[in-house]
Amino acid sequence: MNEYLKSYFPVADIISNTFGNCCEVVVHDLTSPESSVVYVANGNITNRRIGQSFDHLVRQVLLNKKFKNDSVSNYYFEGPNGSHIKSSSALIREPDGNVVGMICINIATNLFEDLKSFIDTFLSTEKDSIFLQEEEVQPDIMSVIDSIIAKTIGAYDPQGLSRKKSVEIVKFLDEKGIFLVKGAIDKVASLLGVSKVTIYSYLDEAKGKR
């Protein structure tokens, strides 16, 4: 784990304690994408556990039109048993500017759904697409995504990878939304030392189409 992230653990605790049982705070280490969760304060909201990977980083955070100044606030996703989760996330940078992690605040909103007058404001969302088009992805966001790809594949020797493990790596990256970004398949193919056609075949196999 990146030691710099430990300074955010008390921050996670104080936020969770302030908002109570409806609030969960998760700290991710993005230098270890496959086991990015390194700290959880009140993990009962999404059942997050240390050692798990991120779920919403690419789709809901980095590709969100509201993502500015390394953060995005008030996006929604569905939690366990259909619960409604309101979330805000921010990237964590070391003093030299390198992105090493992310802190996420998750609030279960089901408790507020009987408060109709409050909910009209609290749960308001935009109906148009919140996702960036490929040409709108900022260079800095691309560097984060490139780092996730490199860190995911970099732990292995491409020449020594079995097809099964290669399929697992491609499936992981696909599930995390990496291939929503233009050029990601080319980068993965290059790092694995295979062609784009092979990556597509891995994707088909991962999805049970072969």
UniProtKB/TrEMBL annotation:
Membrane-spanning residues: none
InterPro entries the UniProt entry points to: DauR-like (IPR039446), DauR-like_HTH (IPR039445), YheO (IPR013559)
Pfam family, one: HTH_22
Domain (Transcriptional regulator DauR-like HTH): residue spans on this chain: 145-204
Domain YheO-like, residue spans: 5-117
Protein name (record): Uncharacterized protein conserved in bacteria
